[in-house]
Amino acid sequence: MAEWLYYAKMKPHAAAERVADLLRAGDERGLKLAAPFAAPADAADMNEADAELLLGSLVKLNAFRWIVVDLEAGWSLRSIGALSASDAIFWVVTDDSACLGKTEALLRRWTEEASPHMCGSALLLLPASMSA
């Protein structure tokens, strides 16, 4: 992933050509997985525009019905870029105090900073124990 990001920053107009190099076979169901960043410091270099470029490049491959992105639990530029480029957002919440505390803080920030597109695309998924 770091190599693609470096290439994308040097030649953003040609990033789609190299995005297929990120993908590898996942399992017998035919899933494809993108190689993650080898080091957390490498991920810190990805900004909002880079995340949007990555997802847009994957879409341009026209090889996938769904692209699932598992984001870190936080509000980062790469998360905002991925959320902005998404057609649908599924936000999974678990029934524990740490998750609920993070979710409360992120929802507060979400309502202040998220674009109308992001807000209209989001679905909050709660466990049955919390929906009563």
Structure description:
By secondary structure, the chain is mainly alpha-helical. It has a two-stranded antiparallel ribbon. The protein has a two-stranded parallel sheet with strand order 3-4. β1 and β2 form a beta hairpin. α4 runs parallel beside α5. The longest helix has 17 residues. The protein is globular. The mean pLDDT is 81.
Secondary structure: elements and pairs:
Layout: H1 2-10, H2 15-19, E1 23-25, E2 32-34, H3 40-43, H4 48-60, H5 77-84, E3 89-92, H6 97-113, H7 116-121, E4 122-125
Parallel strand pairs: 3-4
Antiparallel strand pairs: 1-2
Helix pairs in contact: 4-5
Order of helices and strands: HHEEHHHEHHE
DSSP strand content: 5-15%
Number of strands: 4
Strand order in the largest sheet: 1-2
Offer a few descriptive terms:
7 helices, two-stranded antiparallel ribbon, 11% strand, 47% helix, single chain, 132 residues, mainly alpha, two-stranded parallel ribbon
Compose a concise summary of this entry.
The chain is mainly alpha-helical and 132 residues long. The chain contains seven helices and four strands, in the order H-H-E-E-H-H-H-E-H-H-E.
